[in-house]
Amino acid sequence: MYKLILFVVSFLSFTASYADETPWIDHMDVAESRIIAENSHADNEGNAWFAWELRLKPGWKVYWRSPGEAGLPPKLLLKEDTTLTSIIPFFPLPKRFEFYGLQTFGYDVQFILPFRVEGGEPQKPIALDMAVDFMICKDICIPFMTDYHLKQSGEDHPHADLYSSTISLWRDMVPDISGETVGGLKIIKTEIKGAVGYQSLIFEVEAEQNLSNADMLIESDELFSFGKPKIDLKGKGNKAVIIVSVDGGKNKIDIRGRQAILTFTDGRGHAIERKIKF
Questions:
Q1: Please, are residues 78 and 130 in contact by the beta-carbon 8 Å criterion?
Q2: How far apart are alpha carbons 184 and 126 in whole angstroms?
Q3: Cβ(35)–Cβ(114) under 8 Å?
Q4: Strand 31-37's sheet: what is its strand order?
Q5: Could you tell me if 80 and 102 are in contact, meaning their C-beta atoms sit under 8 angstroms apart?
Q6: End-to-end Cα, the chain, rounded Å
Q7: CA separation for the pair 219, 275 (Å, rounded)
Q8: Residue 208's closest CA among 175, 182, 238?
Q9: What pLDDT, in 10s, does the model give residues 233-260?
Q10: What is the DSSP letter of 199?
Q11: CA-angle at 191, arms to 68 and 174, nearest 5°
Q12: Lowest mean pLDDT across 110-124, 148-162, 201-215
């Protein structure tokens, strides 16, 4: 999979706050970002929810955890001197974009990335020292590295309900990984057709709602890239066959036996994530 980076100057910035939000920080007048906290202190296990909020000027995009054929995903990094043990991002379902003929996945206009930090002191405010390494693209791609410091107030915050509901809303956009049925979404059958180097993945799927806006996002190792799905509706439109072409590179690598993550969405607010071995 080829990574397209057209502008490679990195910009380092820093912002700090001692409330339940950091100030907005500007990124070359094409985006701005901040950190918000769901609560004013850690829970009984010493964990807490936060979110990285990014506002983008028209035409600019930031990438998903698996960006596709161009771009780089955001990375959330704890500072080495922190007492926190882990930071875990939960990526909402992305949009599919075409970037100079390449299939990419990401977000535009506004993006909120919920994340959970672990290792705090139970029921005590958390001092969050972290950085976000990310790239945004339009006609060029610009990488940024931004530091944030936020110390939870430990007290009620005037925006607490707003931030809590905002983080909850974007957490609800994260594809379901529980294995339970969401919106009736099911991947009934997976099949590989074609000779090595010319393979296609065939998925039989169904849902409660019409699948005319459905999509199938496939994550595998970097040896493979995947074409835009072709949707063949069946019955009343709530069943479909999804066909995705496979590009195994110059060496024409076989997709059989490879591990992958499938993200299937009906395009109507429901999505599931499933691990599979082809």
A1: yes
A2: 39
A3: no
A4: 25-27, 31-37, 48-56, 110-118, 86-89
A5: no
A6: 19
A7: 9
A8: 238
A9: 999 999 999 999 999 888 889 999 999 9
A10: -
A11: 45
A12: 148-162
